[in-house]
Amino acid sequence: MFLDIHGHTMRFRDPRHRTLTKLLPPEELIAQWPTWDIDRAVLLPLVHHEAGLPMQSNEDILDVCTDFPGKFIPFCNLDPRYHHNTPEADFTPVLEHYRAMGCKGIGEMCASLWWDDPRMLNMLGHIEKSGLPLLFHVGQETGTYGVVDDFRLSKLEMVLARFPKLQFIGHSMAIWSAISGDCSVENWLGYPTGPVTPGGRLVELLRRYDNLWCDISAGSGNNGLTRDPGFGHGFMEEFQDRILWGSDLCWPGQEVPQTATLKNALAGGNISRQVFDKIARGNAMELLGL
């Protein structure tokens, strides 16, 4: 069974909100799990307006976890502009509060600010001090959402080096297109196909910084692993200790191909049972202290 590092839910459907129906209420989300062999999921609050979704509180996620014991693991989420929009904001008390309430990490970070924005750097310093991991989505400054970087992920590298004790969990097309050396301005926010070429920045960063993890959820993660199956199998073998299985399951009938990707790799003898078990749930259990 899979432990899902990337889950979303909204407790109520409300026709007044156009986008709200795209997120499954918790009981409907759980009902989808057997299809994909999921038995537990991290819940990521939606707090950034850039994503174009209804805002969600950390308390709402904590309530869902209370109402469905043993099913969900809460993350909290904050915006770097929170608390007077200043790089001097003290995030430590609020992070300590949510950690005491049972939150095991922070995310999904979607604020459209550059990694080296002083407000972002300030918040990252407090998160590092908290000991909680950070799950993030990378995008560009306009037209998408997510922490802003260039296609070479140069700003991400800067914060990986600056905050070595902070565990960064990478997600989104911008992360997974960088698995290949042919990542470019034209394709880094899409789903590139074809063989993976040498020089991928994601591979370089994973080799250089042991505080970077990969979230294989959504089409982007699965595309990164399957566009070049031989490379994908080697990638899972090499980085077996820092790959996390996720779904990003949001709406009824959504496909979650990551289940088949891992099962087929195991059945074909392309990855070992040890690698499968680590990616399926073992790495998440260790990272989150479960």
Based on the coordinates given, report the CATH architecture.
Alpha-Beta Barrel
SS element count, helices: 11
Distance between the termini: 15 Å
SSE pattern: EHEHEHEHEEHEHHEHHEHH
Q: How would a crystallographer describe the biggest sheet?
A: 6 strands, parallel
Tally of discrete structural domains: 1
* CATH topology (level 3) name: TIM Barrel
Radius of gyration: 18 Å
- Top CATH class: Alpha Beta
Beta-strand residue fraction: 5-15%
Q: What's the assembly state of these chains?
A: single chain
Average pLDDT value? 95
Q: How would you name the CATH homologous superfamily? A: Metal-dependent hydrolases
Keywords:
13% strand, 11 helices, 290 residues, alpha/beta, single chain, three-stranded parallel beta sheet, six-stranded parallel beta sheet, globular, TIM Barrel
